[in-house]
Amino acid sequence: MATTRNTRPIRIGSLTIGGDAPMMVQSMAATRTQDVAATRRQLEILTSAGADLVRIAVDSAADVAALAAVIEGFSVPLSIDLQENYALAKDVAPFVQKLRYNPGHLHHHERNKSVEDKVRWIADVAQANDCALRIGCNAGSLAPDYKQRFGDDHTAALVAQAVDHCAFLDKIDFRDYCVSIKDSDPRLVIEANKKFSAERPDVPIHLGVTEAGMPPDGVIKTRIAFEQLISQGIGDTLRVSLTVPFEDKGQEIVVGRQILADIAAGRFRSVPKGFFDGLNIIACPSCSRVENERFIELAQEVKEATKIAAEHDLTIAVMGCRVNGPGETDDADLGLWCGPKTVNLKRGTETVGTYSYDEVVEALMGELKVLID
Predict the structure, then answer these.
(1) Distance between CA atoms of 302 and 194, rounded to whole angstroms?
(2) pLDDT score at 1
(3) Residue-wise DSSP of 128-178
(4) Residue 5, C-beta contacts closer than 8 angstroms, at least 6 positions apart
(5) Structure confidence by residue, pLDDT tens digits, 28-52
């Protein structure tokens, strides 16, 4: 059912994506990278489920030190998520086949350097180590200048940011790169990726609905975006992002392959009536940025407790880390972002308070009842 894709092929180790290569299904290790045993278990689960590529996050010297032990004995191609510390690229590139950086985070460090210079440095490191790159754009972490230029038009801002970073790499003749443009709302994911594909039909695209949340809603949100885009020839690799226990992360691969099989066979699922009406709970997939596994239980507790607001058009975001959590809860009516021992409760962009994991649901419900009233 999917139409022919027109992107150029790029190489990620032994893999090829783009062109007429099969769609690649990938996922991300949910554990902290420096927990070697737990992260190796994630690799086992994901490779056993059939992952074509696995992404691991690195954000500290401790993560870098653990990486060699984590990947020993695994042959699946690996991508490193550089998080906010792009300078770690030179330390991790020799171990992996792909580097992912977020354009929205490059302004944090070495402010005396231009963003273009930082991208050029990352590309030089990638080229020296035979790595591909992913330009990973998220609606919740736009670079400040794009926020200023485009205001509330997140779609235009995301597409412009992606196009500009492609131009940075084209300028230095670096070709082994792909782009991802993600949001928790599948409708924005569809709109942004269609616009980007129209501007840069040559660039391979990685698809995903970030913070899709818990099944079954998380699967439905993802399916909506993937069916609309892949059937139009947009997308070369994908990830299904679900909030599930660590031992169940293989579900992301299974669901991804099922969606691809259904699209290929012309089996499209209708969106349940009223799916976008009423309470919307956004929850990020557990990943190595999460500093307390209690986050997964918390997301389930929030889903259960907030059923009283099912008919109200409100958004509650439950985010598992302090890297993306503060920014990606700004657009929610109520937001939780989790630290190692406490959870921050927000109402829009305003912080209401900081609570223990055991206390925060009660505080959230107090705020929710005020909004309902």
Answers:
(1) 33
(2) 46
(3) HTT-EEEEEEEGGG--HHHHHHHTT-HHHHHHHHHHHHHHHHHHTT---EE
(4) 18, 19, 20, 233, 234, 235, 236
(5) 999 999 999 999 999 999 999 999 9
Characterize the bridge pairing of strands 342-347 and 350-356. antiparallel
- What angle in degrees, to the nearest 10, is found between the helix axes of 251-264 and 217-230? 40
**Model confidence over 134-149: pLDDT tens digits?**
999 998 889 999 999 9
Judge whether residue 272 has pLDDT over 90: no
Measured over the CA atoms of residue 34, residue 99, residue 225 and residue 150, the dihedral's sign is positive
Instruction: Return d(Cα 176, Cα 145) in angstroms, integer.
Output: 26
pTM for this prediction: 0.84
Q: pLDDT tens for residues 301-358?
A: 999 999 999 999 999 999 988 777 787 888 899 999 999 899 999 999 999 999 999 9
The CATH class, in words, for 290-372 is alpha beta
The C-alpha R_g of the chain, in whole angstroms, comes to 20
Distance CA 155, CA 270 (A): 25
Length of the chain: 373
Q: Is cis: bond before 216, omega within 30 of 0?
A: yes
Pairing of strands 315-319, 334-338: parallel
Torsion of CA 313, 141, 186, 151, to 10 degrees: 70
Instruction: Provide the CB-side half-sphere exposure for 120 (13 A, CA).
Output: 9
The two tokens of residue 298 are 């918390």
Domain ranges across the chain: 10-264, 290-372
CATH no., domain 10-264: 3.20.20.20
CA 261 – CA 1 distance, rounded (Å):
10
